[in-house]
Amino acid sequence: MTTLTDPPKESFRLSMLIYDTRYRSMTIQIIALIGFLLLLGMLVTNTAQNLATLGKEPSFRFLGEPASYDINQRLLEYTSRDSHLRAALLGLLNTLVVAFLGCITATILGVIIGVLRLSSNWVVAKLTTIYVEIFRNVPVLLWIVFTMAIMIETMPAPRAFKGENPVATMALNDSVAVTNRGIYIPEPLFSRSLGDVHLLGQGSMRFDVSLDLIAIVLVLGLSLWGAAKIKLRADKIQEKTGERPRTWHTRLGLIVVPTAVLLVALGFHFGYPELKGFNFKGGTHLRNSLIALWLALSLYTAAFIAEIVRAGILAVSHGQTEAAAALGIRPGKIMSLVVLPQAMRVIIPPLISNWLNLTKNSSLAIAVGYMDITGTLMGITLNQTGRELETVLLTMLIYLSISLSISAVMNWYNKRVKLVER
Amino acid sequence: MSDISFVRTEMLPEQAPPPSSVGAIGWARANLFSSTLNTALTLAAVALIYYVLAKLVPWAWSPTWNATSLKNCREILAELGREGHFSGACWGVIRDRWVQLFMGFYPAEEYWRPIAAFILLGVALLPILYSDKVPSKMIWFTGLYPFLMPLLLWGGSIWTPIMVLAGFVLAYVVYRALTERMSELIGLIAAVVAAVLWWLLAVSPLSGALADLIPLGLEPVDSRKFGGMMLSLTIGVVSIGFSLPIGIVLALGRQSDLLIVKALCVGFIEFIRGVPLITLLFVASTLLNIFMPPGTNFDIIMRVIIMATLFASAYMAEVIRGGLAALPKGQYEGADSLGLDYWQAQRLIIMPQALKISIPGIVSTFIGLFKDTTLVSVIGLLDPLGLSNAIRADANWNGVVWELYGFIALMFFVFCFSMSRYSMYLERKLQTGHR
Q1: Distance from CA of A127 to the nearest CA of B (A)
Q2: What pTM was computed for the model?
Q3: B227 and B101 in a common domain
Q4: Tell me, what's the ipTM?
């Protein structure tokens, strides 16, 4: 009987940690990890020691204390007696509002300018080039304070609207007032309002939403879904029989009629701004800070988006257009069926990263006094409570989670539209 | 036979093309008025240009260059019969303060130092940017420049940068000595340890002693005196300079198979890229001193430079990662087949090519960072934008807005536009090599 002996065991020597490639990567990683932990430990001990010297103990209890400052643009109920946490929540909502508005306008403007830059019209192409170069090469903060200065210095004061022969008049049939204190626009009102509904959260995170808004969004969503179904059915019929049933009137009706009926049922009307005393009352007041931030961020980001759109359209090779034309597809359809789907693949990822930049740049709100998360949590709350460690870290965390969720969407999209090659 | 022919035997003279299709008219018809939409666009664009120029030119055309205050400007304009808020620009503020907008509060007799520093920066960059036209020996000057620049800008004893430089020399000597006797990795680690020990323990006593012996040096300038365009440029240049090596390490770490190293690098890059620069600047202004060992006290500009470096290195890492990804796989395989190890392959094959591809990206990162340096005005530093507020606080110029913003915008535009043009030129030049 024979027994299998183990192969001669190589004795482990310490130098193998460095020379043997099997262990070397382990060694390097462990050294890196130890270094990182040491650094982290040093930071934490330093911080603890320094804070102890300053007599501060890290805690988030200040978030529950009354904020005692006012936020001039609020989407939720808020009084200065509410807590710092609620102030931060309102700030976050304001950040999201300006980012959302900015992304929409920047995209629309950017697409228009990007397409116009490719125009064969010499004057238009040069003009849009100048626009892109001017906006790309001047810091965004300068644009923000510049727009703010335009709003404050060049717009008429509310009292200019007074009197028999006023210096300034309201635009759009007396419904919009552009003043140096901001822009007043008509506000939507409901005479048979359904009231607010408590959506989620308690205490300082209480989130109430107007039931009217929910109803409108719900009905509109359902009608859009129905319209999409009709279009799908029409597509199927076209594929089967070659003839496309006419559906646009039913689709339009389905989208417009239910919403209109709901609006009438809720007693929808506009509340117009009116000059009372020395200021406008009624209507929605878009403050200068919001306008300046929104406008400047949109114009600035639009310049970058224009370049992306231009590059995307140029990236689709001319052969694609010609091949489509050779197949007898009409020019409009070539654009929508052949060029745009391919251009989109190039356009969308940098477009989303520009939206991300816009969201991050909205933190410059602090320069014009717009009360976003930087202005509330990292601004006034920091100054009032002196909790710089907690507030700054919390603000960073919030921005980080916004960024990471947007880039998660981007990665998902990239994976979906990725060109599958052999 | 008669010589009747039914075909013309000689060529007809060429006819001139119809006058509407050549020259200026033809060009305009083809480019400006080819269709109804095009005509409408042209007219709208021309109307817009006219509207803007009609407002801007009369305002800018204002003989107020020698005015000493805003009131003085208004008087000069009123004498010309121009009244009202937008009757004319007040250029006196630019004549009075342009030096300050460039130099901040840097002492006037030392202005040659920042000027020399930035001119020498150009010289130091030449061998990198125009490698085909400049003698390659110049790269030595590029290597020395990082030690020259702080000396010129901040002043102080000449021995400190020399001693810091000596640390690199020491590291090199140790590396060579140990690599030949033992292994490369041990040499590398020992070199780093030796250099760090030298910098921590030997530099300040040695340079102090040498400065006592031979007091050579420049008048020290406090960084609080830095301001204006010079501050923006200093922050931008120093941060980009430091972020380049950090970015390379991060990019390599992100590409590596070592799980922990990769996770650390990805975490750092995504964290920095996920937060706005302003929060990092708040860290610089309020938190960085808390993170440091008790007793250390960096001045605010140093702290801003540290945070801006971290910020830029995350972006730099992504740019270099792009360069690494753009290299054909054959380059890596070729290096492997030559039997080069990881660092040799990186040093000799991969990095030279990857860095060359990434130069346009590096330039645009620099432009972005340079523009973002205006954010330091939010935490109270006197960059051009912060200075504009300071100038407006002066009773003479209280109320001047457009002239200052316009001038600052122009300064930034000139810098950024020329850099972006250079980067585009470089992109074109590099592209021909590859396709």
Answers
A1: 7
A2: 0.88
A3: yes
A4: 0.88
